[in-house]
Amino acid sequence: MKKVIRGTVFVLLLSLILRHIYSVLSWKDTAGGYLSSVQQLYHTPKNTIDVVFSGSSHCYCSVYPEYLWRDYGYATFDMAVSGQDKSANYYALLELLKTQRPKAIFVEAYALLYDGYSQEGNSYRNLLSMKNSVNNFRLVRETVDKERQSDYLLRWPIVHTRYAELTRYDFVQYAPSEYGRGANWEWRQGAGAWPDAAKSCTATAPLSEENLRWLDRLLALGDREGIDIVFYVAPMQVYDAEQAVYNSAAEYVTAAGASWIDFNKLYDEIGIAPESDFVDAYHCNAYGAEKVTAYLGRYLQENYCLEDHRGETAYTDWDQSLQLYEHYETAQGLDQLDLESFLHRAAELEGVKLILALEGDFANSTLPLSQYAAWLGVPQEQCDEGGKWVISGGQVEASLDNTSTEVVCVELSAQDYVIFDNVSLKTGEPATNNIRINGEYYGKALNGMTVIVYDPMREMIISAKGIA
After folding, report:
1. What mean pLDDT is predicted for residues 301-318?
2. N or C: which end of the chain has fewer CB within 10 A?
């Protein structure tokens, strides 16, 4: 009997250890970094998503649920994964429907133009992010060669190689992957797409068996579940041969009673500007997404009776996601401002912490550094003497003067901390070593001013400058 008990305890302990190890090594990325729309789905309360947008990166780059929440209070979600192919799209929607009952699903149609995964990372994002389930099993069996299916189903043969790339978010949950709504925000501006083919090409092309199967599956899913299926083409570079496929698909789904929206044909109507609204020729940035999402907001308002859920406790994920978006938005272009504009902007930003230092022979600078520090919230008498400060909401949270032998440690977030001391007085080290964030030196000016802007919600430094 004792052997049975010991054996049972051993198996339980081993299972717990392996489960913890797997949680560390597991794949946590569907869009880059540690952002995972699949994790976001699993953290979403049941029956709260009213409208789903699904597809590949073209989906999460072109539709921002935060805009729909901000402007209408609509609870929408991007069930989107980089390089999501037809099969992954279908099974991801089945997984979503386990817990959600949306009124409409908008399917981004780029998967009509390819099969499988052009990058191994995209296969991992689509095949390893979902929980072990019948849907995941069927997806793997449908898309992976037989000799590799066991690797994807067991997962250990793939994820065990991640030891060398582990970071803190493998051990600690990345918060936006809990409350984010699937979008991937981006403000970079690159060469955009011109809609020439979409406007001029009227030809059609035969739809492949794979494409017909996917379209039929989605149409049948909508009929079976009583959910509207709307297909759309995000703004992107399209050539005649590709547009011919879209034209054929549009004819096919509209004949079946579904709707088709081609944003490449709506540039003029919604004001898409190729020179400003794209990251690259295939992906919208936040400026383009705002125009696409505004059109979709009007479409939803005209075609569905959706509730405004703002203020309801079950929908706090949408509030948090919008708050995070606003943190990203307000930081855009900060480092491109001239010095005084940068300082005024930093002082006005809400929800950030400012880490400041006036070190060395700062008083002889040709710039009014004491005045700058005062703008940022340092009391004038301390500005003249120099020192180091953490300022939050315009108030000094912690400080250390330049003659003190003390060490001051301030928690910036659950993950990050800053240490102030005057080690340079004791050891002759550079004054830039008097500020350490997570053990790394962050002083930027030997004889001048350091300004670091830290965002606790994003748990990251969004700007760091040295001013001499």
Report:
1. 98
2. N
Q: What's the rounded Cα separation, in Å, for the pair 392 and 377?
A: 9
Q: Are 75 and 48 in contact (CB under 8 A)?
A: yes
Q: What is the pLDDT of residues 318-343, one digit of tens each?
A: 999 999 999 999 888 898 899 999 99
Report the chain's mean pLDDT, rounded to a whole number: 94
Q: What secondary structure does DSSP assign to 336-351, as a single string?
A: GS-HHHHHHHHHH-TT
To 10 degrees, what angle do helices 240-255 and 209-225 make? 30
Strand partners, 233: 262
DSSP string, 376-435: TT--HHHHHH-EEEEEETTEEEEEE-TT----EEEE-SSS-EEEE--HHHHH---GGGGE
Kindly indicate the confidence band of residue 168, based on its pLDDT and cuts at 50, 70 and 90.
confident
β-pair partners for 55: 80
Residue 73 has pLDDT above 90, yes or no: yes
What's the mean pLDDT in 242-270?
A: 97
CA 425, 429, 432, 435 dihedral sign is: negative
Distance CA 251, CA 259 (A): 10
Q: How many CB atoms lie within 10 A of CB 171?
A: 10
Other Cβ atoms less than 10 A from the Cβ of 77: the count is 29
pLDDT of residue 315: 98
Number of H helices and number of E strands within the chain?
Answer: 20, 16
Cα(447)–Cα(424) distance, integer angstroms: 12
Q: Who's near 336: CB < 8 A, 6+ residues apart? A: none
